[in-house]
Amino acid sequence: MLDPLGSPPAWLREFFEPFALKLSSPTLADHAHEVILAFVFYQVIHSFVSPWLSAILFPQSYPKLSPRTKLNWDIHVVSLVQSVLINAAALWVMYVDEERWSMSSAERIFGYTGACGLIQALAVGYFVYDLIVSAVHIKMFGVGMLFHAISALWVFSLGFRPFLNYYAPTFILYELSSPFLNIHWFLDKVNMTGSRAQWYNGMALLGMFFSCRLVWGTWQSVVVYSDMWNALQQTWAAQASPLLEPTNISAHVFYPTRDGGMCIDETCARANAEISRFKEYTASGVPTWLVLTYVGSNIILNFLNYYWFSQMVETVLKRFRTPEKKDERSPEKPEEVSQKVVLEAAAKLAEDENALRRSELLPSPEQIASGIDVGALGDELRKRRAELVAKVPLPGA
Predict the structure, then answer these.
(1) What is the pTM assigned to this prediction?
(2) What gap in Å lies between CA 363 and CA 367, rounded to an integer?
(3) DSSP per-residue string spanning 14-63
């Protein structure tokens, strides 16, 4: 499928092409306009739309926030818009891109379609914004958030080689849980902690996290590992060739049937030919270091997803192992217990993921108190904050 937004202006493509080739990312020149537009779009939301619209929609909450919390609010607004937009675009591309559906194992590693390139460009544009925000406010958010932005930008930029262009929509679906994570944060800031709305959102967050990150993510990781192994085998075969001239493995990757001969219109022919359009840049195969780096990053991310989910499960189980003492004259209703369990689990999940972005590997007493406070339905646990903070020792104490 061709890029739905079309090619960039000729002058812009000519300007970016030397840099793209120098970075071994030839497809970047075809999507430079989308990266720029995405970055500008998210920056405008952060600087103008969010402050203006938030003050109108939440006049009792947003204007009273501290400068640091307002900055966090605007960042979460951008994250919410970005996650909804890119998830919708990824699902649409996966559904309508017929050339993507027809790719073989090797083509999923080396092949290219403009529609998948669009998804990469939207992601890279957001991560450029994220990188700049993290760098400008490094004293506020710490080095961890900066490294997170750098690593995310680097991994998605690899698709412009092209490398795993096919999997751009696949793995961006990890972000399906992000809208609910952002909504959970907003509900806390508008004094709706423990509300029924947060309970419903918490159930959606936990269900989506399990479905898209654990089930979908693990399955697709196995598939991409298999595809990359096949690609490495072809690379090794080419390197071990006794021929004087280097073997062009594109003959094994891109099939002659991709010449568009069966198409009935020019668009179909161009879309089929586009899969092997950059074959001269991938003819030598995929570097081993690149595969190992990508696999390592993917394994770490999957491990963190399982760790976060295990912490969430532990939070749920702890509720049933050590139930709170209640006045027998006013026993807690089953639906209230269920609501607290969901909210505490969702709060734990949100805290763990945000802590990773800030490199807070060990939770501070304030974080622990905040996490427990989110799971409460009333003011009772808020009164225990000071007591809980006093009991939890500081790291290194």
Answers:
(1) 0.77
(2) 6
(3) HHHHHHHHHTT-TTHHHHHHHHHHHHHHHHHIIIIIHHHHHHHH-TTTGG
Contact criterion met (CB below 8 Å) for 282 and 253: yes
Kindly write down the DSSP assignment for every residue of 121-143, as one continuous string.
Answer: HHHHHHHHHHHHHHHHTHHHH-H
Other CB atoms within a 10 A radius of the CB of residue 138 amount to 13
CA-wise closest residue to 123 among 12, 28, 17 = 28
Give the DSSP letter of residue 214: I
Q: How far is CA 216 from CA 114, 174, 213, 221, in A?
A: 24, 8, 6, 8
Those residues with Cβ within 8 angstroms of residue 58's Cβ, 6 or more apart along the chain or in another chain: 190
Please give the single-letter amino acid code of residue 3.
D
Cα 106 to Cα 103: distance, rounded to the nearest angstrom? 8
**Three-state secondary structure along 307-337?**
HHHHHHHHHHHHHHHCCCCCCCCCCCCHHHH
Measure Cα distances from 38 to 167, 176, 233, 288 in Å. 20, 19, 37, 32
Report the amino acid identity of residue 68: R
pLDDT tens, residue order, the chain (397 aa)? 888 998 899 999 999 999 999 988 999 999 999 999 999 999 999 999 999 999 999 999 999 999 999 999 999 999 999 999 999 999 999 999 988 888 888 888 888 999 999 999 999 999 999 999 999 998 888 887 888 788 888 888 888 988 899 999 999 998 899 999 999 999 989 988 888 888 889 889 889 999 998 999 999 999 999 988 887 776 544 444 343 344 344 444 554 444 444 555 566 767 777 787 787 777 666 777 887 888 888 888 888 888 888 887 777 666 556 555 545 445 555 555 566 666 777 777 677 666 555 544 333 333 333 333 334 334 444 444 445 445 544 444 4
| Cα distance between residue 339 and residue 4, in whole Å | 44
Largest CA distance in the chain: 89
| Alpha helices per DSSP H over 191-284 | 196-208, 217-239, 250-253, 266-274, 279-282
DSSP 54-119: HHHH-TTTGGGS-HHHHHHHHHHHHHHHHHHHHHHHHHHHHHH-HHHHT--HHHHHH---HHHHHH
Query: What is the residue whose two structure tokens read 């944060």?
Result: 185
Task: Calculate the CA 219 to chain-centre distance.
Answer: 17
